[in-house]
Design brief:
Shape of chain B: globular
Largest sheet of chain B: none
Oligomer: heterodimer
Radius of gyration of chain B: 23 Å
Number of strands of chain A: 2
Distance between the termini of chain B: 41 Å
Structural class of chain A: mainly alpha
Helix content of chain B: over 70%
Shape of chain A: flat
Strand content of chain A: under 5%
Distance between the termini of chain A: 37 Å
CATH superfamily of one domain in chain A: MetI-like
CATH topology of chain B: MetI-like fold
Number of strands of chain B: 0
CATH architecture of one domain in chain A: Orthogonal Bundle
Strand content of chain B: under 5%
Number of helices of chain A: 15
CATH class of one domain in chain A: Mainly Alpha
């Protein structure tokens, strides 16, 4: 199509653009620009007061060659991305699937019980449960059962802190992905199962692999995206229950590192470089997820 | 024979879910118990799973003492939270309804690429762009204003995406009929499409409300009289163990509104999420 034809086309659709505008305006200002802007800012030294100074690749060099804490934070983030994320993903699906097998009245109650934690910011309670003295719930149970004799410093001992944070992260992770799975499972036509029974599918595990999973692909993608977001940007849980910084940086994620340089030291150039690394990692994870799920169907 | 196997399986599933569910709900239950415990019961060994003398002291302390120490009445934080969440939720409903309708049902240049960008943008929501947003907001002089709390929440790719998936399930004939009646797109959207999208709208409401209500705004807002509840409760939690009762009361206070809304609109949410799949 030539240019004048295109302009005509755009004019014809001005009503569409007009209706899309409110969304696009704020979407561009608060999502598109921040993501794109992080790239040029990452090549500068920028403290929010002076004009940003171009310093080439220095931020990235420092990140990967001199910043030992960043390397640590990559390892911790990988724990969230490789262990917590997939584990929570499977948990979301299994629980949604289990719940879906039950009668409707039970179904509703379990939905609320499993979804409620994702809404709860009850870090105080977690601090009390894992408190390092005898008054901590977890310690008191262990002492009563005779498993330990002295209280364990769950939140400050570098051996345990990451494990505790991962557990709490799993606890709050049954969110939108879990809801998407529940909805998707409910949406599968009963006819498929009936047809499957005729074909000789005899138990629910066969049903799961031959009927349920193949028809859940779009939801697997959606929930996967949500899981990538929450596991790659994990950090709030650690900051709130294990303190900032955590002992020995044992629960220090890339997100926490960016927070440190962005909001505490105001080194925005360096913080942007960290964010760029994270953006790229998330994009790659998303592409991988797409590839894996598309291959299997 | 097969039926009875299935029933046995269901019982095992039920037991499994009950055990796991108990663990899931326990911390929330503890939050409720703690918030009603008098001071002398908060630190006893072994810690108890119930309270002998429930009291509203923690809640009243939360209202009174905090007002004294922080120089802003506690009700001001509640007002800020309610005002910000309701405004952001309402605006998010409006922008994503119109945007989703156009992207689902109209054809225009650049539509495909916008749809693609929105699916990618699902990745970059949440705290991952807060720091970059901060730079944008400070350039726009929005730090320490209500704008910093509301404007970034107006456009949510997730809400738009869910609405779009749901609207595209509606038959095109409805729109054609509207056009024949002489209605413009704006009227078709608000008078025909959106009234039929109650489940999707409810879903957007619960997600929008949850994210705005729970937003940690500490980095965008320094003025005491503009802070919202989660930020203040987090400050109390950070201020140490002596405030445990108050901070438990605060957590419960924050948790209740989204929980009640979720229970109320749960059915609609499940119906909408049924269209949440990403195809292609």
């Amino acid at each position: 199509m030539n240019i004048s034809g295109k302009i005509k086309e755009i004019k014809r659709c001005r009503e569409c653009y007009f209706m899309l505008m409110p969304f696009m305006l704020f979407f561009i200002i608060f999502t598109v620009i921040p993501v794109i802007m992080s790239v040029p800012v990452a090549f500068t030294d920028f403290n929010m007061i002076e004009y940003p100074k171009f310093i080439g690749l220095d931020n990235f060099k420092n990140l990967f060659l001199n910043d030992k804490i960043f390397i640590k934070s990559i390892r911790v983030t990988l724990v969230f991305a490789v262990v917590t994320g997939p584990l929570s993903y499977i948990l979301c699906f299994m629980l949604a699937w289990f719940i879906n097998q039950l009668p409707k009245s039970l179904h509703n109650i379990f939905m609320i019980i499993f979804y409620a934690p994702s809404m709860a910011n009850i870090y105080t309670i977690w601090q009390l449960i894992f408190s390092g003295d005898r008054y901590g719930y977890f310690n008191s149970i262990l002492i009563n059962l005779g498993i330990t004799f002295s209280p364990v410093q769950w939140l400050t001992d570098s051996r345990y802190v990451l494990g505790v944070v991962v557990a709490v992260q799993l606890w709050i992770s049954l969110g939108a992905g879990f809801l998407a799975f529940s909805a998707g499972l409910k949406n599968i036509d009963v006819l498929y199962y009936e047809a499957g029974a005729v074909e000789g599918i005899s138990n629910r595990w066969q049903e799961l692999f031959y009927i349920t999973l193949p028809s859940m692909k779009p939801y697997l993608l959606f929930a996967g995206v949500i899981q990538i977001v929450s596991s790659f940007t994990a950090g709030a849980v650690a900051q709130n229950i294990a303190g900032f910084p955590s002992t020995d940086y044992k629960a220090h994620t890339i997100m926490t590192h960016a927070y440190d340089y962005g909001w505490i030291r105001y080194e925005m150039g360096y913080a942007s470089a960290i964010c760029v690394v994270l953006f790229i990692a998330m994009y790659i994870a998303d592409r991988l997820l797409n590839k894996v799920l598309n291959q299997e169907s | 024979m097969r039926m009875s196997n299935r029933k046995k399986g269901n019982i095992i599933i039920f037991l499994f879910l009950t055990v796991l569910g108990t663990f899931m709900i326990l911390p929330i239950y503890l939050a409720f118990v703690m918030s009603f415990k008098p001071v002398e019961e908060l630190f006893v060994f072994p810690p108890k799973l119930y309270t002998l003398n429930p009291t509203f002291r923690n809640f009243s302390d939360m209202f009174e003492e905090l007002s004294k120490s922080l120089k802003v009445p506690f009700s001001r934080y509640i007002f800020n939270s309610v005002f910000v969440s309701i405004t952001a939720t309402l605006l998010q409903c409006i922008t994503s309804s119109m945007g989703a309708f156009v992207l689902a049902k109209c054809n225009f240049p650049a539509k495909k690429i916008i749809n693609k960008i929105i699916v990618i943008a699902l990745l970059y929501q949440s705290n991952v762009i807060y720091i970059m947003q901060y730079i944008v907001m400070s350039k726009l002089n929005m730090i320490n204003t209500y704008w910093a709390l509301i404007l970034p929440l107006i456009s949510s790719p997730m809400s738009l995406f869910l609405m779009k998936q749901s609207i595209s399930q509606m038959p095109d004939s409805v729109i054609e009929a509207g056009k024949i009646d002489g209605a413009n797109l704006f009227r078709i959207c608000w008078q025909i499409i959106i009234p039929n999208q109650k489940p999707a709208l409810m879903t957007v409401i619960i997600f929008a409300f949850q994210s705005s209500w729970n937003m940690q705004s500490g980095s965008f807002i320094y003025k005491e009289n503009l802070k919202t509840l989660p930020t203040v409760i987090q400050q109390i939690t950070a201020s140490g163990i002596s405030k445990t009762g108050i901070s438990a009361a605060g957590s419960v206070f924050i948790l209740l509104p989204p929980l009640i809304i979720f229970i109320a609109v749960r059915k609609n949410v499940v119906e909408t999420m049924a269209h949440s799949g990403i195809s292609g």
